[in-house]
Amino acid sequence: MKIAFLGLGNMGTPMAANLAKAGHDVTGYDPATPMPAGVTGAISAAGAVQDAEVVITMLPNGAILRSVAAEVIPAMAPGAVLVDCSTVDVDSARAVAEQAAAAGLAALDAPVSGGVGGATAGTLTFMVGGPDAAFATALPLFEVMGQKAVHCGGPGAGQAAKICNNMILGVTMIATCEAFALADKLGLDRQKMFDVVSTSSGYSWTMNAYCPAPGVGPASPADNGYKPGFAAELMLKDLRLSQQAAGSADADTPMGALATLLYESFVEAEDGRGMDFSAMLPRFEKRSRG
Ligand code: NAD
């Protein structure tokens, strides 16, 4: 397939390289990064998309997505599909889908989970919103870049699934970390805490698969000095998107709101920037009730 790939950063580079390795004809554009192996460079985003059947974007945020979409939609070939894999606000995803539809093109919002490791290994999960026919066109590409693609519904449904999942993740990580810090102060051994909770009703992905306590449970960023992994500032980005969406939809999300405040303070006022999001545990360890 002829593919244009816009945004070749930490995630886009290995995703585009995997598409090229699978035999697709990939043209890339990024104002700041070199082209990955097998990808032909274009001098502009509009130049990259001209004969592409699928245009994939992997960009930092909704404002940049909106400006890139405004530039490339008029240059896209009839029948081409725009697939945005960035994590952006639901409103931007829906606005881009409307703009594409007005130009007679289909668009999908297809954010991912799995991080740079999943992008490199081709094991991402795609959460996808948009029309059935566009999903069918993009599915073979999702199968190269990932191991699972869930068609969640219409425009914005992929972003909605992503931020709801990550709101649960942020809240649960904080709950797991504060419980470990409480267990420490109660004199409970961390391994015993893990043995009980991981097989009891407090279990979760954050406890069982990504345990924030070093040396406990399967290997995780906690065992590597809390080097990310999934950086605290990316968790904060996703929590903020969840609260923006909750505001637009008039949804009451008190736990999500508190998790957003805690990660905001951790990243912006404490030493959390550049640390894995599970470094909330050493944060709580150092704190007392007052
Ligand atoms: P990144 O900052 O490394 O890459 C973004 C790239 O977009 C940069 O190389 C930048 O130069 C490029 N860009 C900016 N403006 C552009 C334009 N006008 N045209 C073309 N390219 C442009 O970010 P990343 O870590 O690759 O993340 C990309 C997206 O994926 C974000 O929305 C992020 O939230 C999401 N995401 C990241 C991870 C992760 O672990 N890094 C995991 C899941 C989702």
From TrEMBL:
SUPFAM superfamilies: 6-phosphogluconate dehydrogenase C-terminal domain-like (SSF48179), NAD(P)-binding Rossmann-fold domains (SSF51735). Pfam families: NAD_binding_11, NAD_binding_2. PROSITE patterns: 3_HYDROXYISOBUT_DH (PS00895). GO terms for biological process: L-valine catabolic process. GO terms for molecular function: 3-hydroxyisobutyrate dehydrogenase activity; NAD binding; NADP binding. Keywords: Branched-chain amino acid catabolism, NAD, Oxidoreductase. Its EC number is 1.1.1.31. Residues 2-153 form the 6-phosphogluconate dehydrogenase NADP-binding domain. It catalyses: 3-hydroxy-2-methylpropanoate + NAD(+) = 2-methyl-3-oxopropanoate + NADH + H(+). Gene3D superfamilies: N-(1-d-carboxylethyl)-l-norvaline Dehydrogenase, domain 2, NAD(P)-binding Rossmann-like Domain. InterPro entries: 3-OH-isobutyrate_DH-rel_CS (IPR002204), 6-PGluconate_DH-like_C_sf (IPR008927), 6PGD_dom2 (IPR013328), 6PGDH_NADP-bd (IPR006115), HIBADH (IPR011548), HIBADH-like_NADP-bd (IPR029154), HIBADH-related (IPR015815), NAD(P)-bd_dom_sf (IPR036291). It comes from the Bacteria. Pathway: Amino-acid degradation; L-valine degradation. It is an enzyme of class 1 (oxidoreductase). Residues 156-281 form the 3-hydroxyisobutyrate dehydrogenase-like NAD-binding domain. The active site is at K162. Belongs to the HIBADH-related family. This is 3-hydroxyisobutyrate dehydrogenase. It comes from Frigidibacter albus.
